[in-house]
């Protein structure tokens, strides 16, 4: 049943599923109000949370591309993320939607959707949770460094975008990632990493409480992953998006990631300097 769900970190092309059943609109799901639906996986229904973006959101922020790349890249740093897929809404599914959902659908982009496997049971992240507890579920240093790498401001105090299960803390919602990549490359060459991506991060307070000697050893595992990451594996992601009618930013994102990879030690050094 779950063969597609647990293919591991080498998977880059996402599975494609058809929606077969509508459950409800998740009103607490942030700006996009995702849907909880069931998809068909060889006849087996799987619960998926599907994001619904407008055409304007996709044009302005490449939201679907950011979601896919964020999910795929997180696995390269051994960070837990829900299994992802592309979800098609067939006419039979749309026809049986409740009236409220049909109204919503008239205002969103009609291309294939991004969705993630429902993590259940799961609880939201609270900033008051002790560091030892969070560290037992996710590598805090790597999560912080990863969001700085993909320039994701959307994991802050008021919107952590982290789901806590029994054993892991899953990173979700990367739609606002890869912000101003061209500026990032210019800043990096000037030995800068935008502090805005560091100081607003949910894990910044945890990291800055450490003594100076500890900070000097931060991000060693992340640096090792970044040094050996295979950026070419993202080509299948870009190709898949293009096949479904999306315009990608591969000509900007791939060179940016390659530059960070080739200068991984410098990236980590600058990142440590942002922990004050």
What does this structure look like?
- Strand 2 and strand 3 form a beta hairpin.
- It is globular and about 60 Å long.
- The protein is built from 14 helices and eight strands.
- Helix 11 runs antiparallel to helix 14.
- It folds into two domains: 102 residues; 151 residues.
- The relative contact order is 0.15.
- The longest helix has 14 residues.
- It has 276 residues and is of the alpha+beta class.
- A five-stranded mixed β-barrel has the order 1-2-3-5-4. The chain has a three-stranded antiparallel beta sheet with strand order 6-7-8, with no helix packed on it.
Task: Provide a short characterization of the protein structure.
By secondary structure, this protein is an alpha+beta fold. Helices cover 40% and strands 16% of the residues. Helix 1 (55-61) packs across helix 2, helix 11 (220-228) packs antiparallel against helix 14 and helix 13 crosses helix 14 (264-273).
Secondary structure elements and pairings:
Layout (H helix, E strand, L loop, with lengths): L15 E10 L9 E7 L2 E8 L3 H7 L1 H14 L7 E5 L2 H5 L3 H7 L7 E5 L5 E2 L6 H5 L4 H10 L12 E3 L4 E3 L9 H9 L6 H4 L4 H5 L3 H4 L4 H9 L6 H9 L6 H13 L1 H10 L3
Parallel strand pairs: 1-4
Antiparallel strand pairs: 1-2, 2-3, 3-5, 4-5, 6-7, 7-8
């Amino acid at each position: 049943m779950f063969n597609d769900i647990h293919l591991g970190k080498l998977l880059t092309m996402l599975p494609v599923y058809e929606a077969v059943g509508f459950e409800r609109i998740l009103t607490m799901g942030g700006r996009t109000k995702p849907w909880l639906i069931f998809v068909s996986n060889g006849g087996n229904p799987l619960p998926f949370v599907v994001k619904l973006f407008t055409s304007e959101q996709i044009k302005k922020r490449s939201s679907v591309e950011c979601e896919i790349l964020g999910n795929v890249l997180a696995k390269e740093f051994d960070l837990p993320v829900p299994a992802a897929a592309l979800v098609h809404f067939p006419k039979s599914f749309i026809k049986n939607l409740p009236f409220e959902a049909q109204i919503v659908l008239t205002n969103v982009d009609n291309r294939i959707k991004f969705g993630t496997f429902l993590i259940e049971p799961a609880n939201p992240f609270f900033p008051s949770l002790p560091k030892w507890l969070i560290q037992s579920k996710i590598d805090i240093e790597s999560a912080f460094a990863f969001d700085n790498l993909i320039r994701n401001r959307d994991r802050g105090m008021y919107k952590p975008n982290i789901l806590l299960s029994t054993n892991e803390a899953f990173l979700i919602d990367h739609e606002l990632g890869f912000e101003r990549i061209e500026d990032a490359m210019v800043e990096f060459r000037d030995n800068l990493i935008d502090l805005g991506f560091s100081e607003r991060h949910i894990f910044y307070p945890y990291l800055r409480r450490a003594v100076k000697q500890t900070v000097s050893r931060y991000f060693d595992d992340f640096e090792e992953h970044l040094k050996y990451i295979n950026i070419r594996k993202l080509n299948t992601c870009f190709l898949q998006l293009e096949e479904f009618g999306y315009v990608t930013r591969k000509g900007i994102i791939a060179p940016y990631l390659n530059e960070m990879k080739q200068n991984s030690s410098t990236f980590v050094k600058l990142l440590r300097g942002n922990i004050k």
